[in-house]
Amino acid sequence: MAKRAISGVDAVEVRVDCLPEPPAMEDVQRLAAPAIVTVRDPVEGGARALSFSEREALYFELLPAAAAVDVEVRNLKAFGAVVKAAHTAGVPVIASSHDFEKTPSRAALRRTAARARNLGATCVKFAATPR
Fold first, then answer.
1. For the CA atoms of 22, 28, 31, 33, what is the dihedral angle to 10 degrees?
2. Predicted local confidence at residue 129, as pLDDT
3. Half-sphere exposure of residue 93, counting CA atoms within 13 Å on the CB side?
4. Given CA atoms 17, 73, 63, 37 in this order, what sign does their dihedral have?
5. What are the start-end ranges of the H helices in the chain?
6. Direct distance between the N- and C-terminal alpha carbons of the chain, in angstroms, rounded to an integer
7. Predicted confidence band of residue 130 (pLDDT cuts 50, 70, 90)
8. Do residues 119 and 96 touch, judged by C-beta distance below 8 A?
9. pLDDT of 59 over the 90 cut
10. Cβ–Cβ contacts within 10 Å for residue 83, how many?
11. Mean pLDDT score of the chain, rounded to an integer?
12. Which among 64, 66, 53 has a CA at the least distance from the CA of 94?
């Protein structure tokens, strides 16, 4: 089934940690826009306290339907197998970093971005509280 574009929407983020039940891969594939699959860690705003093993399994389960995966910078090394599988499948890895207290310094942002790229990130996304 061909995806129909949603006007003005380039992609949708499927926040698996926010859903009461994980979506089936087929449901993610049928979305009307490319899916960014995210299983967020509670330390960085995740809605459910999923274990590392649960999060890893969900990434692997949904990877075939993902246009990209989003993994926290702090967890890139631990999720190295997911990062490798994503690259093998041609799926970009978005490395995200969240600071709910402040805006990190420019130097800190650069260090975090360099670390993320060294651990396999295709791109880096920062979310911070402006202060």
1. 110
2. 87
3. 27
4. positive
5. 25-29, 52-62, 80-88, 106-118
6. 46
7. confident
8. no
9. yes
10. 23
11. 92
12. 66
